[in-house]
Specification:
The chain is of the alpha+beta class and 357 residues long. The protein is built from 14 helices and nine strands. The chain has helices at 5-17, 22-29, 33-42, 46-89, 94-101, 105-115, 117-146, 156-168, 172-179, 186-196, 240-251, 296-310, 331-339, 347-356, and strands spanning 226-230, 233-237, 257-258, 263-267, 270-274, 278-280, 283-287, 315-319, 343-344. The strands form three sheets. It has a four-stranded mixed beta sheet with strand order 3-6-7-8. A three-stranded antiparallel beta sheet has the order 2-1-9.
Length: 357
């Protein structure tokens, strides 16, 4: 403790100016909070001292978070560390390793970086090799398709389905969307058109409305919007619930794609179109909060979707926040996903997302 009062006060003022919080000043000088506050107020430094205290708490919380994270990484390393090293050495890529650990991709990336940078680089090389192999397979598949090699036989059911859509006046783009999950790409649909007649293409008029039959633009609506990058695919979401369900499906190893079906329906005498959210196999899913299931508009949409998709040998289901055991994301999880490139979102929508998590 300093001897002279003036020196003591000068030391406190100097420590506040240098960013010291109350705890540090108290331990160094032995003065109570009341005395330190009085000196800070007299020197117009009270607000600065409050900022120092808040900054100190944030740093301490960050250190605590890092310590807790390191403890989790050590537990994961104790259980899976040797197996992960062995699999990476054998050429394994990221997806099965994430399934092995049973955590999110963001957690796995942070764990591997904590464990060894050389493992990160080796895993990246494995992923590049697997992607190159998949591109080569796709190239061969495309070459076979152009040579006329049949990928799937056109059955009587498929013939009936195609002719029914042709009779109903369904346009070419929608027929392709219906046929693709059944295993028939553009070339096969083209062959069907040469045999049974070609459907009309979708023009821009569409019920005298250039946006009829199209998805809402990415910038429209009032929900939280952004992109999640899962594996080699990029998925656009229009609500925090959609984002959480897409991440859950990916973590669970479920292969899904965004729906491109345009389902016509009639509401209050006005013709509209409706696009569900995602597809798994032959099941088309719509994501809706449970509190909105009973609205008249949604009842009309769901009824039209069931009827429309049933004619095309597809099933329609609605999922809510109660369907899955969804993980609760903290602010730190969101920021980590942004840092790791899993989540792409602008400042405006990030503010919305952090408000609702």
């Amino acid at each position: 403790m300093l001897k002279k009062t003036n020196d003591e006060e000068a030391a406190i003022v100097d420590m506040i100016n240098k960013g010291s919080p109350f705890k540090v000043i108290n331990e160094f000088t032995g003065f109570t909070y009341k005395v330190i506050k009085r000196i800070a107020v007299e020197n117009n430094l009270f607000e600065r001292m409050i900022e120092n205290n808040q900054s100190f708490k944030r740093r301490r919380a960050g250190i605590t978070h890092k310590i807790q994270a390191a403890e989790r990484y050590r537990e994961t390393d104790k259980v899976f560390g040797d197996e992960i090293e062995r699999r990476i050495a054998n050429g394994e890529h990221k997806v099965p390793l994430i399934a092995l650990v049973g955590k999110s991709q963001a957690y796995f990336d942070r764990f591997l970086k904590w464990k060894s940078q050389s493992l990160v680089e080796a895993l990246r090389a494995n992923g590049q090799r697997v992607n190159a192999e998949n591109r080569a397979k796709a190239s061969v598949l495309g070459a076979n398709r152009t040579r006329g090699v049949p990928l799937k036989k056109i059955t009587e059911d498929i013939e009936f389905l195609y002719k029914e859509m042709l009779f109903e006046g369904v346009h070419l783009a929608e027929i392709r969307r219906v046929m693709l999950p059944l295993g028939f790409g553009c070339e096969k649909v083209k062959q069907m058109g040469e045999i049974w007649g070609k459907p009309d293409r979708c023009d821009q008029s569409g019920e005298n409305n250039p946006m009829y039959g199209k998805s809402a633009p990415n910038g429209s609506g009032i929900g939280t919007k952004g992109w999640v990058n899962l594996g080699n695919k990029r998925h656009f979401f229009r609500s925090s619930l959609e984002m959480r369900i897409f991440l859950h499906l990916y973590d669970a190893g479920t292969v899904f794609s965004l729906s491109k079906h345009r389902i016509p329906y009639l509401l209050d005498g006005v013709k509209r179109t409706y696009c569900p959210d995602y597809v798994v196999g032959t099941i088309v899913y719509e994501i809706k909060p449970s509190k909105l299931l009973s609205t008249d508009e949604n009842k009309t949409k769901f009824s039209a979707a069931k009827e429309y998709l049933a004619k095309r040998c597809l099933e329609f289901q609605v999922v809510t926040e109660e369907t899955f055991s969804l993980r609760k994301y903290e602010e730190s999880d969101i920021m980590n996903m942004i840092d790791n490139g899993i989540l792409e979102i602008d400042e405006k929508n990030l503010t919305k997302l952090l408000k609702w998590i």
